[in-house]
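Weekly structure sync, notes
Attendees: PL, DS, HV (note-taker this week)

Item 1: Non-canonical purine NTP pyrophosphatase
DS walked through the input record. Source organism listed as Desulfatirhabdium butyrativorans. Sequence as pasted into the shared doc:
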Amino acid sequence: MTLSTTLVIATRNPGKLTEIQSLLSGYPVKLLSLDAFGPIPEIP
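Item 1 (cont.): predicted structure, written out as tokens:
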């Protein structure tokens, strides 16, 4: 059995998400950005 983990990356920057996916490519990790959750207000 293979376990996987979902990580939420607190960014809207698609380049940053791609960079992190590249770093974690050897691991069973699913990455989601803030865009996967609909409208989220900016944090001041």
